[in-house]
Amino acid sequence: MTESTFTEEKAYAYVTRDREEVPELLVFEHPDPEGGVQVPKGGIEDGESPREAVVRELKEESGLTELESIRSLETDVWQHHEKPKAYRRHFFHIVAEERRDQWRHTVTGDGEDEGVVYDYFWARPRSISLARDMDDYIGQILK
């Protein structure tokens, strides 16, 4: 697949906090049983940069707004396994100072997940498998 064939752009947030020697990754289990464990992510709106999109999506999907740093990791083109769709994915590593170990957040914004409730928790990055190849660049946040 060439990069010119992607159908949608998305921004993905690998949010970590340093509580121990190994950083913890913010994840949620999607309420749809087929959704699996995911990281905050979402579509990039017209006129929005991937960095702006990841900050907006993180706020809408998790409620987090206090971010210490944002670093771009990778951009790729990913072919959906069940649909004839490809996505240009922009991955970011974001460090947050968050004391809560788990919380529930109702998604805001006007996307397809608006009103859905996500239950967030922290996990060790190598101890969890993320849905839809979202963990492709996890190794880069552990360096």
From TrEMBL:
Keyword Ion transport: no
Matches recorded under CDD domains: NUDIX_Hydrolase
Keywords, sorted A to Z: Hydrolase
UniProt-listed SUPFAM superfamilies: Nudix (SSF55811)
All residue ranges annotated as the Nudix hydrolase domain in the record: 7-143
Region Disordered, annotated ranges: 29-50
Pfam families on file: NUDIX (PF00293)
InterPro entries: Nudix_hydrolase, NUDIX_hydrolase-like_dom_sf, NUDIX_hydrolase_CS, NUDIX_hydrolase_dom
PROSITE patterns listed in its UniProt record: NUDIX (PS51462), NUDIX_BOX (PS00893)
Keyword Hydrolase carried by entry: yes
Gene Ontology MF term list: hydrolase activity
Superkingdom of origin organism: Archaea
Protein name according to UniProt: NUDIX domain-containing protein
Organism annotation: Haladaptatus pallidirubidus
Lineage: Archaea, Methanobacteriati, Methanobacteriota, Stenosarchaea group, Halobacteria
